[in-house]
Design goal:
With 126 residues, the protein is an alpha+beta fold. It has four helices and three strands; from the N terminus they run βαββααα. The two termini are 22 Å apart.
């Protein structure tokens, strides 16, 4: 997992899943065209306010790039502002949390297991 990055997207709206999936796919294609991130969806979950998507990339990206990708795809702006603040203050671990992860720490081994089990074809969200 050392040579990959996780793009964590928090979309807070009540649109239907099909429309949200279409929007996320569009921006993933656009980012992939310019940065060759080769995305694969690891998870897609409905939340109380909207949806969480976690996308594994084929390359390791620095935190500012990940924050930019998350913003472009449509992640919550306040969340990304907080992420940027954490990175700017020197935080190197756990700067990119989704709300559900604040209560349950996910180990690197578990992320690797999840990514191996749930990776699906490029650009196709479940």
């Amino acid at each position: 997992m050392d040579k990959t990055s996780l793009i964590k997207i928090d979309i807070d709206h009540r649109r239907n899943y099909k429309r949200t999936k279409s929007s996320v796919n569009f921006y993933l294609r656009w980012i992939d065209y310019y940065f060759q991130i080769f995305p694969c969806v690891v998870t897609a979950n409905k939340t109380h306010k909207g949806f969480h998507f976690v996308v594994a990339t084929s390359h390791k990206f620095e935190p500012p790039y990940i924050i930019a990708f998350q913003l472009i795809i449509g992640s919550d702006r306040i969340r990304e502002l907080r992420n940027l603040n954490r990175v700017a203050s020197g935080m190197t671990n756990n700067w990119n949390l989704l709300f559900s992860e604040k209560f349950r720490k996910i180990s690197k081994d578990e992320i690797e297991t999840i990514s191996k089990e749930k990776l699906i074809d490029k650009y196709e969200l479940v």
